[in-house]
Amino acid sequence: QVQLVQSGAEVKRPGASVKISCQSSGYTFGYHYVHWVRQAPGQGPQWMGLIIPDEGRTTYAEDFRGRVTVTSDTSTSTTFMELSSLRSEDTAVYYCARERAYGGRYFYDHWGQGTLVTVSS
Amino acid sequence: DIQMTQSPASLSASVGDRVTITCRASQTISSYLNWYQQKPGKAPKILIYAASSLQIGVPSRFSGSGFGTEFTLTISSLQPEDFATYYCQQTNSNPPHFGQGTRLEIK
């Protein structure tokens, strides 16, 4: 069965960086884009960016441009999301999600379990 | 950016009730609208895509409708497991914003 398994919770100081992994299994890694979405406490989900896993091509949200880097390792079917210059407002649960495409558009049909990142001095 | 606005922000209802949640887009998005259900501590789960297509495995009491800028999610007869938060998401253009959510609570 399709699974996306993320790395564990992180606690970081303001100004630091965090790198989260998302390992995919149960499907052909290169066939589906992987998106990253975060959710701050009590808020709706916020899209951060996506990667085309076998090409390494990325698109990022303007809100995170310059601070976020998404990469992929096809040998391990793993996607990584690194967020730099962390501030307290970056405290959130971070999710990876698999894109299911249809007619040029898409939805997320499988999600990772989420990784809590806490930014605190 | 296309902004998504959901109403109401919260809703109290009883088992067996019919409920409707509305999502409005700040500009036309054709039918590129998804609905997700999220329970505490869990990732969102897809219910409806393309405004009205039911994802495989989702109960038929869930339905979606709409086109352009106004969309609805209807639950025909609430079950205990339906009490959760619901989000709409547009995928017409990047960034694929979500609505702020509708929390469905037990009356």
Summarize the structure in words.
The complex is a heterodimer of chains A (121) and B (107). In chain A, the strands form 2 sheets. In chain A, strands 2, 4, 5, 6, 9, 10 and 11 form a 7-stranded mixed sheet that branches. Chain A has strands at 3-6, 10-12, 18-25, 34-39, 46-52, 57-60, 68-73, 78-83, 92-102, 105-111, 115-119. Chain A is an all-beta fold. The mean pLDDT of chain A is 96. In chain B, the strands form 2 sheets. Chain B has a 6-stranded mixed sheet, with no helix packed on it. In chain B, strands 1-3-8-7 form a 4-stranded antiparallel sheet, with no helix packed on it. Chain B has strands spanning 4-7, 10-13, 19-25, 33-38, 45-49, 53-54, 62-67, 70-75, 85-90, 102-106. The chains are: A mainly beta (121), B mainly beta (107). At the A-B interface, strand 9 and strand 10 of A face strand 5 of B.
Give the SSE layout:
The complex is a heterodimer of chains A (121) and B (107).
Chain A: E1 3-6, E2 10-12, E3 18-25, E4 34-39, E5 46-52, E6 57-60, E7 68-73, E8 78-83, E9 92-102, E10 105-111, E11 115-119
Parallel strand pairs in A: 2-11
Antiparallel strand pairs in A: 1-3, 3-8, 4-5, 4-9, 5-6, 7-8, 9-10, 9-11
Chain B: E1 4-7, E2 10-13, E3 19-25, E4 33-38, E5 45-49, E6 53-54, E7 62-67, E8 70-75, E9 85-90, E10 102-106
Parallel strand pairs in B: 2-10
Antiparallel strand pairs in B: 1-3, 3-8, 4-5, 4-9, 5-6, 7-8, 9-10
